[in-house]
Amino acid sequence: MSTQPATIVQRLWNYCNVLRDDGVSYGDYVEQLTYLLFLKMADEQEQELGKTSAIPAELGWRSLLRLDGEALETQYRYILASLGTGSGLIPVIFRKAQNKIQDPAKLRRLIDLIDGEVWIGLDMDVKGEIYEGLLEKNAQDIKSGAGQYFTPRPLIKAMVDVMRPAPGQTICDPAAGTGGFLLAAHDYIKGHHTLDREQWGHLRHRALHGWEIVDSAARLCVMNLYLHGIGANGGQGGEMGGETPPLRSPIRVADSLAADPGDRFDIVLTNPPFGKKSSVTFVNEDGEARRESQVIVRDDFWTSTSNKQLNFVQHIKTILKINGRAAVVVPDNVLFEGGAGETVRRKLLHECDVHTLLRLPTGIFYAQGVKANVLFFDRRPASETPWTKELWIYDLRTNRDFSLKQNPLTRADLDEFVACYHPENRHEREATWSEAESQGRWRAYGIDELTARDKVNLDIFWLRDESLEDSTNLPEPDALAAEIVEDLQAALEQFAAIAEDLGA
To answer: Are residues 395 and 430 in contact, defined by beta-carbon separation less than 8 angstroms?
Structure first.
């Protein structure tokens, strides 16, 4: 098998098309690859490097190689069930694991495909790139909903580039998805600093932390990190290490909003799940399914609300160290919603230095109907006066058209924002907007201007939308139709949330 990442991804992915005929989805396929790849690499660590495997021989890769037919399927199911118990990294990967490949002959073929490559011989970056490629392929399958766990990598890179994580710092993503933010932070530190042994150990085993509530996303995230050498051995020996102590998982499978974890971090980088309301479904005495808004009540929160994004903003403030820094993707409603939204914004402006807002264009997320922003803020000690002095806003949305296929977002599209952010010293920023340069995308608003706005509305824009004024410069019909669909979907979600609250 070729060691070119794209070639390996394509070869593995082509086999998924065969399995689709048996009803195996893209997401299911990536999960099966995750289980088998981990087993194969654990075996290679033992056979090629003489490392003590964390996986017992009766549950290992070689127990699959000598079997076919029903016996192979039975053994595979036994392995999945057995490795999903206990604590540490391995149970996170195999938690609630199931065999989705019903034809033993096709399972045999997939095992042979993986066995044909010596994975340990591949560089960490190559292995990680292969897996990232598979995750991106999976995210492109809109029907599977996998895109909700996949933030555009160019956006992640730009956010990390301006945040500049450093050796010794702790970085957290409370909605980790497939681990894009944590990986980007890891790669930034590795690429911009010469690390000593202690710093390397900290980066691999103690720097990165995440929460993920969905089992399938958590296992993909842990495997993604593992293939990049993160959390691989809990500081014990080689990549796989031993099971004493258990291989450390950088990801906790839990609802990060449930409670204050007690941990505090230097940096939070995250894109909390889209969707406005938290709710639970129950069946009443008449057998009817009903949904009720789930209001999260925590002593450390400024206000109680069922709005997940507002709760994540409050949670992020809690888990930041004093002077800790955050960059969080939020939908537009977080910027303008009244009630709890206004309370959160006022408190955030007062207790934190909310210094930067990046207005994101539409068409860059796999989820439809998303109008989002990146909010940057630093936590500060208690103060009688607001810590926020001015909010700098960069508008990447107005007069910019992106789509996932025809015109995808690239890192170069964010170069001007990164330059304007001035990460070397953000107190030396210069606006690109002025009365003379009315189309400049970068300008600041003082705290008095912000708090004087109705409901402290931070959904601020000033650029003239050229497409609305020039009928000859309208977007292509397909782009226009897509935007209309997105707006309608967003409106329907809001109406559904209102109906939910009213008990309809």
So the answer is: no
Whether the bond between 245 and the residue before it is cis, its omega within 30 degrees of 0, is: yes
Pairwise CA distance, residues 375 & 372, whole Å: 10
Rounded mean pLDDT of 72-81? 96
| pLDDT over threshold 60, residue 15 | yes
Residues 6+ apart with CB under 8 A from 282: 289, 290, 292
CB 364 within 8 A of CB 153: no
Q: Which 3-state string (H, E, C) describes 26-79?
A: HHHHHHHHHHHHHHHHHHHHHHHHCCCCCCCHHHCCHHHHCCCHHHHHHHHHHH
> Structural domain boundaries of the chain?
5-134, 320-504
The pairing of strands 289-293 and 279-283 is antiparallel
**φ, ψ at 391 (rounded to 5°):** -110, 120
Cβ contact 369:487 at 8 Å: yes
Give the three-class secondary structure for 268. strand
Task: Judge: domain 5-134, CATH 1.20.1260.30.
Answer: yes
Classified as helix, coil or strand, 397 is coil
The 3-state DSSP class for residue 390 equals strand
Convert 304-327 to b/e letters by CB count within 10 Å (16 or more is b). ebbbbbbbbbbbbbbbbeeebbbb
- The per-residue pLDDT of the chain, averaged, comes to 85
Say how far apart CA 493 and CA 491 lie, in whole Å. 5
Let me know if 473 is exposed, middle or buried by CB neighbors in 10 A (0-12, 13-18, 19+).
Answer: exposed
The four Cα atoms 258, 378, 182, 81 give a dihedral, to 10 degrees, of -10
Residue 394 per-residue DSSP state: E
Structure-model confidence comparison of residues 294 and 449, the more confident one: 449
Query: Residue 207 contacts by C-beta under 8 Å, 6 or more apart in sequence?
Result: 168, 169, 170, 171, 185, 186, 189
How far from each other are the two terminal CA atoms of the chain, in whole angstroms? 57
Dihedral sign, Cα of residue 170, residue 171, residue 174, residue 175: negative
The span from the CA of 97 to the CA of 95, in Å, is 5
- For tokens 């932390």, the residue is 209
Q: Name the DSSP letter for residue 490.
A: H
3-state secondary structure 391-429: EEEEECCCCCCCCCCCCCCCHHHHHHHHHHHCCCCHHHC
Contacts of residue 28, defined as CB under 8 A and 6 or more positions apart, other chains included, come to 100
Q: What is the DSSP letter of 248?
A: P
Q: Which helix (H) or strand (E) holds 270?
A: strand 265-270
- Calpha distance 354→344 (Å, rounded): 12
| Per-residue pLDDT reduced to its tens digit, 181-239 | 999 999 999 999 999 999 999 999 999 999 999 998 899 899 888 888 887 554 333 33
Q: How far apart are CA 157 and CA 178, in angstroms?
A: 15
Give residue for tokens 């490795």: 83
416 phi and psi, to 5 degrees?
-65, -40
CATH architecture of 320-504: 3-Layer(aba) Sandwich (3.40)
